[in-house]
UniProtKB/TrEMBL annotation:
Gene Ontology cellular component annotations, sorted alphabetically: plasma membrane
PANTHER family: IONOTROPIC RECEPTOR 20A-RELATED, IONOTROPIC RECEPTOR 60A
Membrane topology of the entry: Multi-pass membrane protein
Classification via SMART domains: Lig_chan-Glu_bd
GO-annotated biological processes: detection of stimulus involved in sensory perception
Signal peptide start-end: 1-25
Full protein name: Ionotropic glutamate receptor L-glutamate and glycine-binding domain-containing protein
Compartment(s): Cell membrane
Molecular function terms from GO: ligand-gated monoatomic ion channel activity
GTP-binding listed as a keyword: no
Length: 627
């Protein structure tokens, strides 16, 4: 496609002037300056795809004359000003031009952040300058997908192959001028993942990542992460076989964006943490070093990881919980106190006090003295206590109203004791299943239990950065040998050999805990593990791509459709068989078995304590009588 000189447009921006250069290339004799020859063509290109409120940044390589720069600015009218970045050679300074170019890009970023949107116009006949500038601009974020780029050059097409890779991943068009008078300009649009000599010019600034025209093969970093991703070996020299909800999502993305993929696992089997030397491990490191085009994950969204990779739209939200082994069913030794609540026991004592008070009042009304003697009240109190303990009492010598109060008390005691006995017999058939670790505090307070966390995950990064609170105590527990890290591929071994024995407790995402409990139930038919009630460290999970990669917004758009339709949640439910069997497992079970001292030691403890108090009281009475 060709565009002739002609149109103009209005732009607005702040004025800025900088000087630096990668180097100069000699211009062929007899040809006009590229900026002067192709400036109007750039204006025509922008006029056909202009966005309101955008400003223009004009960047040259220092070879353009002042006259050409002024004319170029006039061809791009800017009533509020234009940003001009003009480069000069940095002679005699090793790598000085690259450093200065980075400084100019920082100035351009300042303008970008202060503007609604930006259109960058770069002019050069130096292929090294065009390539290096584009690479640095993409890495700095200046050429993120919303920013449009128009590159002007007078180079022959045979020398433009080097710039293909950088410009194919930017929202860019390349205007090539033949330098004649009048000039004729060709427009190139580089497609992503296409051969260097491929071009398409039917649409200016197309959404090149809506559907990848060349059907590339992308490298996807992935690691096993039940229930999201399961990885099976396909055989020597063959790719891995993925299953799980994330594989279904990746298949949809592959079909929608028109790409195939190969799976590459991280050497250390981790998600990725930042090391002290500034490098990244795991899948995050692979994407950051451009060893992979995207990371499958899903990855927890953290601030520090966002400095190395870009996140797609959120796929799900999960929380951390404790997974520990359930104890053996046992009888509560103090269960004989449970048939009545504390309120019932207090009401029972209040009723006894009321019966004694009524007896005392009636005795005072029928006797010559106003108050009953203490010895008489003590005898009546002892009588009511004997009734409560289901012992015999004698009613000889009692008046009718005393018999009436005593009878009412006996009826009340009979009803309560019958209810107590029946409820106690039911409770003795109930076994309690201990689940002691319901929060991190209880786990930390038990010195005999070791915590197991996921290696190379966001939890590790968080524990490395925390400076106070309970999570700092968790990190300090590593020095005491109470904190170990394992890979996701070792979860089943850890559950069966460590957590089941009660010496370890797993701390991780709730979904992982559900998968482990469901798999164990499917194998054994019983719930030997439980997840804590307390939740902590909520995280959003998403896929990752390279920084400022236009592929990430394209992936996010499709992921949003899948998650909003509820497909991913449905895939998760289908991927966890017997999921609900142990999620809300009962903490009490009913059994039929004989009772022994191990189960009833609480009763005997109370009986022995009462006998000891009675013995001490008897000894005290004997000593008091002799003295």
């Amino acid at each position: 496609m060709s565009a002739w000189v002609g149109n103009s447009l209005t732009v607005c921006c702040v004025a800025l002037l900088a000087s630096l250069s990668i180097g100069e290339a000699p211009r062929p004799r007899g040809r006009g300056e590229t900026l002067e020859a192709a400036g109007a063509a750039a204006a025509a290109v922008l006029a056909r795809a202009w966005q309101p409120h955008c400003c223009v940044i004009l960047l040259t390589d220092g070879t353009a004359s002042t006259h050409a720069v002024v004319k170029g600015v006039q061809q791009l009218p800017a009533p509020w000003g234009t940003t001009v970045l003009e480069t000069r050679p940095a002679r005699g300074i090793p790598n000085g031009s690259v450093a200065l170019l980075g400084g100019a890009l920082r100035h351009a970023l300042v303008v970008r952040r202060a503007s609604w949107c930006v259109v960058v116009v770069v002019v050069s006949d130096n292929p090294s300058f065009l390539t290096k500038w584009a690479e640095l601009a993409i890495e700095s974020g200046l050429l993120a997908w919303p920013t449009r780029l128009v590159a002007l050059t007078g180079l022959p097409t045979t020398r433009l192959h080097r710039i293909h890779l950088a410009y194919s991943h930017a929202n860019a068009v390349l205007v090539v001028s033949d330098g004649n008078t009048p000039p004729r300009c060709g427009v190139w649009v580089h497609q992503p993942f296409s051969p260097p000599n491929a071009r398409a010019a039917r649409t200016l600034f197309p959404d090149k990542f809506h559907k990848l025209a060349w059907g590339p093969t992308l490298v996807v970093a992935a690691e096993e992460y039940p229930p999201h991703v399961l990885i099976n070996e396909a055989g020597p020299g063959r790719d891995y076989i993925l299953t799980g909800p994330m594989e279904k999502l990746l298949s949809i993305l592959s079909a929608q964006l028109n790409f195939t993929y190969t799976i590459k696992r991280p050497p250390d089997g981790s998600w990725g943490v930042l090391l002290e030397d500034g490098s990244w491990t795991g899948m995050v490191g692979m994407v950051n070093r451009k060893e992979a085009d995207m990371g499958l994950g899903p990855f927890a969204v953290t601030t520090i990881r966002a400095t190395a990779v870009d996140y797609t739209r959120t796929i799900l939200v999960d929380y951390g919980r404790i997974l520990a082994g359930s104890g053996k069913p046992e009888v509560d030794p103090w269960g004989f106190l449970l048939p009545f609540t504390p309120g019932v026991w207090l009401a029972f004592l209040a009723a006894m006090a009321a019966a004694l008070a009524a007896t005392a009042v009636l005795a005072s009304c029928t006797a010559s003295q106003l108050m009953a003697p203490p010895s008489w009240l003590n005898g009546r109190a002892l009588m009511f206590t004997r009734v409560a303990l289901q012992q015999d009492v004698s009613a000889r010598g009692m008046r009718w109203w005393e018999r009436l109060v005593l009878g009412a008390w006996m009826v009340l005691t009979l009803v309560l004791m019958r209810s107590y006995a029946g409820t106690l017999m039911s409770l003795l058939a109930v076994r309690q299943i201990p689940q002691p670790f319901q929060d991190l505090r209880r786990l930390l307070d038990d010195p005999d239990v070791t915590m197991v966390w996921e290696a190379g995950s966001m939890y590790v990064q968080f524990l490395m950065a925390v400076t106070s609170g309970i999570f700092r105590e968790v990190r300090e527990a590593e020095g005491l040998g109470r904190l170990v890290f394992v890979k996701t591929t070792d979860y089943n071994r850890v559950l069966d050999q460590m957590v089941r024995r009660g010496t370890h407790a797993f701390v991780g995402e709730y979904l992982s805990s559900r998968v482990l409990m469901a798999n164990d139930f499917s194998a054994s038919g019983q719930c030997d593990f439980y997840a804590s009630r307390a939740k902590f460290l909520p995280f959003m999970f998403a896929m990752v791509g390279r920084r400022y990669s236009p592929l990430v917004p394209a992936l996010s758009a499709r992921i949003g459709v899948v998650t909003e339709a509820g497909l991913y949640d449905s895939w998760l439910d289908a991927a966890i068989p017997n999921d609900t069997s142990c999620v809300a497992a009962p903490t009490k079970v009913t059994v039929t078995s004989s009772l022994g001292l191990v189960n009833l030691w609480g009763m005997f403890t109370l009986l022995g304590s009462g006998a000891a108090v009675a013995g001490l009281t008897f000894v005290g009475e004997v000593l008091a009588y002799r003295l």
